[in-house]
Amino acid sequence: MQTKLTIYERIEKFLDKSKIPTAYVLFIYITSVQYIPDNWVSEDFKNVSLWPVAITLGIIILRIFFDIYKKINEPKKTLPFYNKWGDLIDSGEFLKIFKKRLHDDKVLNIKIIGISLRFHWSYIKNLMEEYLLQDKNVEFNISLSMLDTDAYDSLEFIDESFKQKFLIQAQATENDIELFKKNYEKQNRTSKCNITLHKYTFMPSFYGILLDDKFLFLGNTYWGKDMIRSAGQSYNLYVEDDDFSGSERIKIFNSWLNYIENKSKSK
Fold this sequence. Notes:
Blueprint (H helix, E strand, L loop, with lengths): L6 H26 L10 H31 L7 E2 L2 H7 L1 H13 L1 E7 L4 H16 L5 E9 L12 H25 L7 E9 L5 E6 L3 E6 L1 E3 L2 E3 L5 E5 L6 H18 L1 E2 L1
Parallel strand pairs: 2-3, 3-4
Antiparallel strand pairs: 1-9, 2-5, 4-10, 5-6, 6-9, 7-8
Helix pairs in contact: 1-2, 5-6
């Protein structure tokens, strides 16, 4: 699922990455043009060409200084944190990003790694249904990864009573995903919904939701009272190119997702 950038995002990304190399090229031109033989380039052309080159270089240098000044003087940022799934939903941040990405591109790629997906799936499903029922000409590409329900007996990670409760929730979620796929994937609509369910057989060290390879809501599993704690717990929000290694976190998340997709059972 390759994320599509808007035209504005492509231009902005290109200009941001090219300003320093461009400044080097313009500086080299200004310092070397005077040494070009007159029989190659006329003196008038040299003089005329220097003005736009010098102005462009000046604008780029001012932009670089402005970026430095802005970085030095901007308030210290903190990593967005949500104590639990309910707090994340109540904040409205997830919904805001969800709607903005759909508005900008009409296509939304969602990747989820969870254990039973009981919180993630029910919320995502309700959001998607709103658009699909109204047939708003959008496309959802959903990759879901959950712990294989057939592997619960072989994994000694929780007490028996909790295992059975967790297993029932996971089986119910899996059945609901399959029902949703049957209801929406093959209907003759302008909106599209492509869902792939992957299963893995190991205990993950984290869980999370990635939107368009740009916004990652990430949490870590941990052990407590002989049971694993997961999706109902805390989340941090990482954004591509943020000040908290967001791009690296997204890269790691995708690497695990690719591993799960390549090694697991899929539906």
